[in-house]
Amino acid sequence: MAVETLGSRESTRSKNMAKRRETILREARSLIADEGFEALKIRDLAARAGLTVPTIYNLVGGKNEILAVIIEEMVVQLRALQDAARIDPVEESFAKLIEDLADHFATDEAFYRAAFIAGDRSGLFEQSSGEGIFAHFVQQPIETCTRAVEAGLLRGQIAPEVLGPQIYGCYRLARQDWANGYFDLNGFRKQALVGVFLCLASDAKPAFRERLMSKIAGLTSG
Amino acid sequence: MAVETLGSRESTRSKNMAKRRETILREARSLIADEGFEALKIRDLAARAGLTVPTIYNLVGGKNEILAVIIEEMVVQLRALQDAARIDPVEESFAKLIEDLADHFATDEAFYRAAFIAGDRSGLFEQSSGEGIFAHFVQQPIETCTRAVEAGLLRGQIAPEVLGPQIYGCYRLARQDWANGYFDLNGFRKQALVGVFLCLASDAKPAFRERLMSKIAGLTSG
DNA sequence: CACAAGAATTAAACGATGTTTAAATTTAAA
DNA sequence: TTTAAATTTAAACATCGTTTAATTCTTGTG
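Above: the input entities. Below: the structure tokens describing the complete assembly.
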């Protein structure tokens, strides 16, 4: 395929193609942010990019390929955020991830909302990067719960393999509800954090439980 | 509209129209169960129902109207199930609702999966019956939590207005994951129940907490 | 520098789908 | 039986994703 060799040599042609491809993806992100992926029309995209329809098919692909490229870029960014959140103490680890995610989404809220909706619907998140973003992202809460048991914060009465996915579910549901417009990014922060802290509280030893309760109280009073 | 007077008189015409309308909706449900709402083609539906395309528009409407009718029927059924689950003790109330839902979905699993996916995507659940199914369905866990506090099962350290939506979220996420094919109906039962019991445990008094823990252990060991 | 080969771009069309229009048909009442 | 209204129908319309075949342009070569 010609596309695979984009930019491999610094020929005029390759550079122009790479530049056009970036233009296509940039305008696609903009259009998706405006009205969602379903409303993205290839003809509109071609007009906005100053190209014709078959050029888009040549340089990127059809609607599904465009979405796949955009989702893949997003997944890479999300993984970086998660990797940056492996810190102590336990509850700060979850709080930092949620805060980082919210800040990241805030840089282009309309786009990320539309992208998550499209990604969820297409099943692309689960196919992304080999084994699925779900399987990858759920590992961190499991590991963090294991650390919390070792640190004497959790009782360990509930296996980390049970508690971890529940915690990940709290974040996931909050993200979906934000993407679907049920609340804004502050609602996302609050909903995700309260859910995570509640899950932790269910297996927390008394002292840690009190810490979580005061955090929940602070989140739900204001 | 002619449709509104369907069956208002027992004329031959009215009866035939009502019968055809039912045929359309029955075949629509069948086609949706086969391949999902997005794959439902009006021409296919017309052929299956032994009618032509504009007749469907006359008797029911376009794709969105068809979906709206089907979703509305589903919401009525779901409300009936929820109303039937207002029982004691507290954890049995949630368990009965989840069990009833799973049994209900099992009667036509392919259809309900497709209907939930379509309903979630269209936002029809939130528009359904005036104030939205979400706002209605979240009331029961809130009330049940309030009763649990009064009964001395929960500490009340977390407001029922906070705990109730979290519990409803557990059921909602399990339903979505089932609809999206991440697990089967048994997985739905288990995921929903474990989530609900975890939420309750976060605010449970010791004796109730132990009851919940043994239930969770029974669910996650098998 | 001119030219031939190959690649990228374009105009146009194809196929599918939701929806609507206008004519034909059927029904209920006078 | 006839007439007026309503229903059903065949056909077309509009839009969209996608593909084909011809045109234009770039690159390497004689």
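Note for the figure: The CA atoms of residues 23 and 50 of chain A lie 9 Å apart.
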